[in-house]
Write a structure and sequence with these properties.
It contains six helices and 13 strands. It is of the alpha/beta class. The chain has a five-stranded mixed β-sheet. Strands 11-10-9-12-13 form a five-stranded mixed β-sheet, with helices on both faces. Strands 5-7-6 form a three-stranded antiparallel β-sheet. Helix 6 links the parallel strand 12 and strand 13. The radius of gyration is 18 Å and the shape is globular.
Length: 268
Amino acid sequence: MGLTAFFLPERLPRQVVYAGDRHAEVVSLSRGRITGRRRLEGVALAEALADGGLGWAEVMAELRPVETGIVFSASPFIYNLFDFDRLPWSNKACGELVAWRLQKIFPGDLAAYDHRFFRLDRKRVLSILAPRSLRETAEARFREKGVPLTFIGSSTLTLLRRMQAARPAPDFFIESDGPACTLLFQNRRTPIYIRTFRGSSPADAVEETLKTVAFVRGQYGIEPRRYWLIDHRDGAAALAAALASLAGQEYTRLQSGFGEAPHIPGSR
């Protein structure tokens, strides 16, 4: 596959595997339209890399021998938003600057990760770390099956790109996958804050969401009120009801307008 396709599909595949929290989906696509979805429970592709993979055999058995992408939920990735006085023009120099900042805050071994960064404006960068074992295991499994793997993606990054282009634009989105939640806030279509956490119930997730909204309000001087709720485990109704109960009419849920699977690149 090659790292050039990491997060950045050169062309849309004909099927996509979504690797979520204890489940997976195989999605078939035709000209951007979803033509089939097969859900597999008890699958934890990102969590089981060290022991060879939990559920990989079941997922691979569902795939057709066509160009395929795999999109992971937020859990295996480490996201950072960095502010600098200014960014150098050279991508090489910019990468070195971001790596220097990472080394100051990251306690782990950076050599164990693939690193990607995206310029947001003249001063800000989104940095993403992905375990090398994530790519290596996925590539090996697809190679064994004889299925062409054309890209490895992030559902959160896909949602971010769509949020930036959406009209009307949400102030933040909640990506919920069972107990795993990701919150991403934007201001003037630029991401400003990302947080991931695990909640034991919808009420717990809402409480953490409201705490995070309060933090962003105080830190950045904005009023996040309009949001997307992207749910991967059919719990959107309970989460939305809990949010309405705890927050009253202060928040407005917007529909993404990108079909039934906005986390899948190219689908509509």
